[in-house]
Specification:
mainly alpha; P1 Nuclease; 3-stranded mixed beta sheet; about 5% strand; globular; disordered N terminus
């Protein structure tokens, strides 16, 4: 009986943490849906069927537990050491996020790709565009993208990566649709500016942002002040991710 209770508690705990991390990806996916061209919207629907971009956005995390996808674990991130650019940085032989964004784009553009391959590639692409806009998915090569940077988030043990993946967003107690409704306002000039950059430039942008988000003076406990300081940046990164994902899909399916 005790084992059942403990196992259930652990399952609920891990599921809750995982679900909170999904909110950001779904925000990016929903914003992208809002900015698709009519043709791109039809093509995405043809590939995904009844699965929305927002729901498809978390699939790549869902399959982490499937051994068949172990080779994709390194795809979620890239490393750009402080003082270097993406172009100057050593690339993982297992693949990394910028390279894989480009690979999925090419697969989707290839008319000979099967429908099954296109569906998988589209799910990968949706997720990876979200990942690259989380600044700590462009790591400095020293602390596993902030995973080794231990912090107390309010009164709980955490790390900087987890705080940016989920806890800053989860702390607002908003659904992904509520966040989208509150931030999806962007001018055509800004859309053109954001969509005019390449995935490599997105990585450089995230690396620059990454340098600004480590707590000052190595603070080990953060909470309301940190959340207030960076919430606007979190929202902007989510919005950029969605607008850029829409741009990529509009280009693929033009």
């Amino acid at each position: 009986m005790n084992k059942i209770i403990i196992s259930t508690a652990l399952l609920l705990c891990s599921t809750a943490v995982f679900a909170w991390g999904q909110i950001g990806h779904r925000v990016v996916g929903k914003i992208a849906e809002n900015h698709l061209s009519p043709k791109a919207k039809l093509e995405v629907q043809r590939i995904l069927g009844n699965e929305s971009i927002a729901i498809a956005s978390t699939w790549m995390d869902d399959v982490k537990s499937d051994e068949a996808y172990d080779h994709t674990h390194a795809w979620h991130y890239t490393t750009v050491p402080t003082g270097k650019t993406y172009e100057e940085s050593e690339k993982s032989k297992e693949g990394e996020v910028v390279q894989k964004i480009e690979d999925m784009k090419e697969l989707l553009k290839n008319e000979s790709s099967s429908m099954a391959d296109k569906k998988e590639a589209l799910r990968f692409l949706i997720h990876l565009v979200g990942d690259i806009h989380q600044p700590l998915h462009v790591g400095n090569g020293l602390d596993r993208g902030g995973n080794d940077y231990k912090i107390k988030w309010f009164y709980s043990n955490s790390n900087l990566h987890r705080i940016w993946d989920s806890e800053l967003i989860e702390g607002k107690q908003l659904s992904y649709t509520e966040i989208v409704e509150s931030i999806d306002f962007v001018t055509p000039i800004k859309v053109k500016e954001w969509q005019g950059l390449s995935a490599a430039q997105w990585a450089n942008e995230s690396a620059t942002i990454r340098e600004t988000i480590y707590p000052e003076n190595g603070l080990e406990k953060i909470g309301y002040e940190y959340s207030y300081q960076f919430w606007e940046l979190v929202q902007e990164q989510l919005l950029k991710g969605g607008i850029r994902l829409a741009g990529v899909l509009n280009d693929i399916f033009q």
